[in-house]
Design brief:
Blueprint lengths: L14 E12 L5 E13 L3 E18 L2 E20 L5 E12 L4 E17 L3 E16 L8 E17 L2 E11 L4 E14 L2 E12 L9 E12 L2
Antiparallel strand pairs: 1-2, 1-12, 2-3, 3-4, 4-5, 5-6, 6-7, 7-8, 8-9, 9-10, 10-11, 11-12
Length: about 240
């Protein structure tokens, strides 16, 4: 189970693809602009299912230098992930393989990647709600951006994730997603809480609150990052 968008109520189709875009521009005491974009595709087949996600975030701010204002990039992060589930005798019980790659220009690591596999199960799914989880061992690698001050990280980790969705009405959906990756030296946890509402047709608006905690953050950085966003989501099919 990867970090899915979960933006629209279940359509009944065995394949789903959504695109998400958010833009924020501030002008006044602080001049800045930020773009968030995400694409999510998932497909349920008789014996297996897969999901792939691509997510990017870019932010610029105007800073004065020698009396002149210049646009300075203050955030640039790319993330991709994919998960394949192989269904067992019961379709709700599965074996999964998960992989992700993250590149954050302002992180202490040039990139972070991991591969994990294990047990995945959908505990229930009814007309209004769904709850599923996955847990299993994996291998993570993070390459330091400064070899003199930071060491590369690599080793066996444990990854766990859970997702709960609730259809409040025919046009509104609540979603809670949590994932964590840990080894004896660090723990990385992500939580996304969102509420999506259909505007018309295949277009929806999503309000989300995201928390990311990294116990191995640089001294000059906060261990906890939070983000509140309003984005438009389009369901292609």
């Amino acid at each position: 189970m990867s970090d899915s968008t979960g933006a629209l109520p279940h359509s009944g189709s065995n394949i789903s693809a959504t695109g998400e875009l958010g833009y924020l521009y501030n002008k006044g005491n602080t001049n800045s602009s930020s773009i968030n974009a995400k694409f999510n595709i998932s497909h349920e087949l008789e014996k297996w299912s897969y999901q792939a996600i691509a997510n990017t975030r870019y932010k610029t701010s105007k800073e004065a230098d020698d009396g002149q204002a210049h646009n300075v990039t203050t955030a640039q992060k790319n993330f991709i992930s994919t998960q394949i589930d192989f269904k067992l005798a019961s379709p709700d019980e599965r074996i999964f393989i998960y992989a992700e790659y993250e590149n954050d220009r302002f992180d202490i690591y040039d990139y972070q990647t991991l591969v994990a596999s294990g047990w995945s199960e959908r505990l229930w799914r009814d007309e209004f709600s769904e709850f599923k989880y996955s847990v299993g061992p994996g291998y993570a690698l993070a390459e330091a951006s400064d070899d003199e001050q930071n060491d590369d990280l690599q080793g066996v980790i444990l990854r766990a994730a859970l997702e709960y969705t609730l259809e409040i009405s025919k046009s509104a959906q609540f979603r809670q997603f949590i994932s964590t990756e840990s080894d004896p030296e660090y723990t990385k946890t992500k939580s996304e809480t969102s509420l999506s509402t259909k505007i018309f047709g295949s277009l929806a608006m999503k309000l989300s609150f995201i928390m990311e905690h990294n116990s191995n953050a640089e001294i000059s950085q906060e261990s906890l990052d939070t983000e509140t966003a309003v984005t438009l989501v389009y369901q292609f099919f």
